[in-house]
Write a structure and sequence with these properties.
This protein is of the alpha+beta class. The chain has a domain at 62-214: Alpha-Beta Complex (Sulfite Oxidase, Chain A, domain 2). Helix content is 14%, strand content 27%. The strands form two sheets. Strands 1, 4, 5, 8, 9 and 10 form a six-stranded mixed beta sheet that branches. Strand 6 and strand 7 (139-143) form a beta hairpin. It binds ligand MTE and molybdenum atom (MO). Ligand MTE binds at residues 49-54, 98, 134, 136, 138, 167-168, 180-181, 183-186. This is DMSO/TMAO reductase YedYZ molybdopterin-dependent catalytic subunit. Residues 56-201 form the Oxidoreductase molybdopterin-binding domain. It holds the Pfam family Oxidored_molyb.
Length: 221
């Protein structure tokens, strides 16, 4: 009896998560690290928050903003601001690690976790990667298992205030367990793919995955 799974909460959400856990598609045991491992190798701490991008900071109002969800999902859709806010809202606390060697601790984010987002758009079994496209033309790729990490979040607020335009407002992604170039600012489109493809920096010599603890900085590493 004690071994029986609890059936009463077998919502679609728990079914999806259980299926993914069975397939090993969610990373496990990666989020909590000993404090001694908090700063990845080759990184130094900063207290400010540097701004890094391709030099074009698009000005997108909340009213103009859209998130197009395309590719291998059952619910191919476009979110506007209200649709994003109608998904479950979560607050997270995480560190930033930029490949240019600065790290910034203790950032407070609010938005929609990628797991809640995935539950809403329902990826097809063939989907193994995503390509993110931003309003400035930037692209970056992630394995679906990395996109679905427990602390990955589609962010609209920082410290309870709207995310500043220079940091990717109105909406950016934050994937804390990878280098920050994977965290697309001014997020506009997410395409679900049956194979991992290279985004902007990945085509220009950066690593396809970018794990800071493995120092996956450049593709020839
Ligand atoms: N749309 C977009 N997102 C982007 C970039 C960019 O040029 N355009 N640069 C990436 C890089 S290299 C880094 S380090 C972080 C910087 O985010 P920040 O300016 O908020 O520190 O954004 C990432 N996301
Ligand atoms: Mo970066």
């Amino acid at each position: 009896m004690a071994d029986e799974p609890i059936q009463t909460e077998d919502t679609k959400l728990t079914r999806t998560k259980r299926k993914w856990a069975d397939e090993g598609r969610f990373l496990t045991g990666r989020i909590s690290r000993p404090e001694a491992d908090r700063l990845p190798p080759g990184q130094h701490l900063v207290k400010n928050w540097p701004v890094l991008d391709l030099g074009q900071q698009p000005q997108i109002s909340k009213a103009q903003w859209r998130l197009d969800v395309r590719g291998l999902v059952n619910k191919s859709t476009t979110f506007d601001w209200n649709a994003l806010l109608s998904l479950p809202q979560t607050q997270t606390h995480s560190d930033i690690h930029c490949v240019t060697t600065w790290s910034r601790y203790d950032n407070d984010w609010s938005g929609v976790t990628t797991r809640d987002f995935l539950d809403a758009v329902d990826p097809q079994p063939e989907a193994v990667a995503v390509m993110l496209t931003s309003y400035d033309g930037y692209t970056t790729n992630l394995l679906l298992s990395d996109f679905a990490a427990e602390d990955a979040i589609i962010v609209h607020s920082w410290k309870g205030e709207p995310l500043a335009e220079k940091h990717g407002g109105p909406v950016r992604l934050v994937v804390p367990h990878l280098y920050f170039w994977k965290s697309a600012k001014w997020l506009h489109r997410i395409e679900f793919l049956n194979a991992d493809r290279a985004g902007f920096w990945e085509k220009n010599g950066y690593h396809m995955r970018g794990d800071p603890w493995a120092e996956e900085r450049y593709s020839d590493d």
